[in-house]
Amino acid sequence: MSEELKFHQVAYVVKDLDKAVKLWADNLGIGPWTVYTLKSPGLKNCVYKGQATDFGIRHAMAFSGNLQFELVEPLHGPSIFRDQLDSTGEGMNHVGCIVQDHPAAVADFIARGFTPLQSAAGFGAEGDGAFAYFQPPDGISAIVELISPPKVRIQPDYIYPAPEGK
């Protein structure tokens, strides 16, 4: 393994992101949620199960302590999120970890028998950032995301609850 994985994120797929953000904030006290839309032309190099494609998602992120929660709503195109909604419905989708060298971490996963499921890049304000989802080998029933966050994020759609004075 090229670098020690430090998981910090758990993600759930949802049918209605706006409704889910409000429920998670109001009922569980998790937030504030920062909501983004990721799609072309900002989302580049989209691959789903080995095929170049086009997909779009809306997602929201919030922390509870050191744990980041992510909620993901598929918009268009094939994705692991649409697959889950169609097969089993809403619920936990993946665990994520930030890696320092995304290409090396991806190559390491592939060399160790992880199955690539979906990936994309270029979603940051400066065209950087990358993510890749994998199915681990040997029957581990979890999807793992390798994340290279962008240096600067794009402008969010909104934040809920809104910051004071906004």
Word description of this protein:
It contains 3 helices and 11 strands, in the order βαβββββαβαββββ. It has 166 residues and is an alpha+beta fold. A hairpin with a 2-residue loop joins strand 5 and strand 6 (67-76).
Write the layout of secondary structure elements.
Blueprint: E1 7-13, H1 17-28, E2 33-38, E3 44-48, E4 51-52, E5 56-64, E6 67-76, H2 80-87, E7 91-98, H3 102-111, E8 115-121, E9 130-135, E10 143-148, E11 158-160
Whole-number radius of gyration?
Answer: 15 Å
> Separation of termini?
45 Å
General shape:
globular
Largest sheet: 11 strands, mixed
Summarize the structure.
With 166 residues, this protein is α+β, with helices and mostly antiparallel strands.
What labels would you give this structure?
166 residues, alpha+beta, 11-stranded mixed beta sheet, 11 strands, 18% helix, globular
